[in-house]
Amino acid sequence: MFAIAIHGGAGTLSRGETSAEHAEAYAEGLNAALDAGYAVLEANGSSLDAVVAAVCVLEDDPLFNAGRGAVLNRDGLAELDASVMDGGTMGAGAVSGLKHVRNPITLARLIMERSPHVMLVGEGAEEFARLQGVELVSNEYFRTPVRQQQLHRLLGGSAEKENDLVAFGTVGAVALDAQGNVSAATSTGGMTGKRWGRVGDSPIIGAGTYASNASCAVSATGHGEYFIRAGVARDICAQVEYLKIPLAQAAANVLAKMKALGGNGGVIAVDARGDIALEFNSEGMFRGARSSNGRNEIAIYR
To answer: Contact 211/174 with Cβ under 8 angstroms?
Structure first.
């Protein structure tokens, strides 16, 4: 049994404001990421390889708020965060405040595998990237016209509603491989117009990302401050491991706790049995899932 699930962000995108053409473009991007991750699993590859492969595809797709399509901070720059966790070894790696690493998720993995640390930030993280031969690009590479327009409208005070979705944009993947190992990966550009070095939940192990073979793997997307406060990813896995609560119910329980604090968003999760949960309390979440038992889906709304 093997399975993979991905997300491309959750927020308040209204069904009525989404054109068929726009929805189709997002579906194509999600399918490409699913194809990349599932191909790894189908070839008897590891769940870690699968989630990194899927997230790299989403980081390279300018539609999503990660990598090339990342939203911009108040100064008009992309600042990138990512994290990855291997449920078999409990190894984890994370990065924050990157401005030149083309695929942050690959650097997060290298930190896990080639350093004694879990998280590196800013210039130090990019120095480590150079030592590891990671591909670096100019910050201009990440800045798309759409993201520049969104920042301009936000700073002009006219984009609060339109910006709700991209404020919650993140990409992620979780997977179970044929050997019974689970992994999770998450990557983001954060919030449009962020400043003061703001960091959300995506690079924080236990908040936006968590994986353990004893329970499940989780990747979150939403208003990061609330996911941090609720320890969402770890809490879901703890309920599965210690309370023996079914995966979907555990995810719903924790999202309800986070919602009570005032936060919106969603999670994707997979457990050691191959059960998949795609839970969210916002109007929509870009998501997809595929498994060796025949599940295959892409969706935005409920």
So the answer is: yes
